[in-house]
# Entry
Amino acid sequence: MAMDHSSPADLFVVDPYVKMRLRMVAEQLRDRGIRDERVLQAMATVPRHEFVPREAWGEAYDDHPLPIGEGQTISQPYIVAFMIEALGVEADDTVLEIGTGTGYEAAVLSRIAARVFTVERIAALAMRAQENFVRLGYRNIEASVGDGSEGLPRSAPFKRIIVAAAAAAVPDPLLQQLDENGKLVLPVGGADLQNLRLLRKAAGQFTATNLGGCRFVPLITN
# Structure
């Protein structure tokens, strides 16, 4: 996997938003308990403003979601970091993301994992995400359009699965496509009340941990 080894000093030369990004990492992530240095480094490197509409660039590193069109949003930086840290991604892992949006979370994952597969139900968003990946040089991400609740059988199994939209219940295909000793993080619940869950698979059995309340757009299925 190609890694970005640019130092903060180098980034200031080419990226006028780097100061905002580093402040985001320090104040919104590290100060709120995110400890995985790989996650912090990835969030310090990936330009979140490139994944939101240009008119929202000034808010790109603020601690809240932002609209990205098609009735969808990009999650607040803290929840992205929190979910990825809970997922416990290793350098040689293959990750499946459900709910690409414009590609920000997949880009962050790509700085940590060996390969990222991401599925988006809305074709217009998937196209924008793919354009972002190509333009920004994220070469270890494969994006596709489809029903995220069905996972991506052709590329399974996955060591890690992350879902960026709320399902009423954990979709069975995702459980089937999770590799042994794998982890799955997703929000579960209705429109008004959701819980973020971490599922672990060991010896073919699943254990679940509740990570707290959350609010996501619903998982769109066919």
